[in-house]
Design a protein that fits this description.
Cellulose_deg_GH3; Fn3-like; about 100 residues; secreted; hydrolase; signal
């Protein structure tokens, strides 16, 4: 299983620059996980006035958590939210999906 999320990043400044785009995942509430877990990041260089697309692939490794009851890795069912931003406190876009 793999999910891919794409996000467009634009440099609206007057100089060439770089951005570290980060992907955080919120698990279903029943999973008992922290509010956001970092699941990917990518540093992109963007020329002034240009934009680029950053793709994040979430495979079974990024979607699973350790279940202490069964002593195994599991992918919980329910609603997940993927947050994209410059940091965990600077989220610029979010989207949800259900497994």
């Amino acid at each position: 299983m793999a999910l891919t999320a794409s996000v467009a990043v634009k440099n609206s400044g007057s100089l060439d620059g770089a951005e570290v785009v980060q992907a955080y995942l919120s698990f279903p509430e029943s999973a008992g996980e922290p509010p956001k877990l970092l699941r990917g990041f990518e540093k992109v260089l963007i020329k002034k006035g240009k934009k680029t697309t950053v793709n994040f692939t979430l495979g079974s490794t990024e979607l699973r958590i350790w279940d202490t009851k069964s002593s195994s890795w599991v992918i919980p069912s329910g609603q997940f939210t993927l947050h994209i931003g410059a940091s965990s406190r600077d989220i610029r876009q979010s989207g949800s999906f259900t497994l």
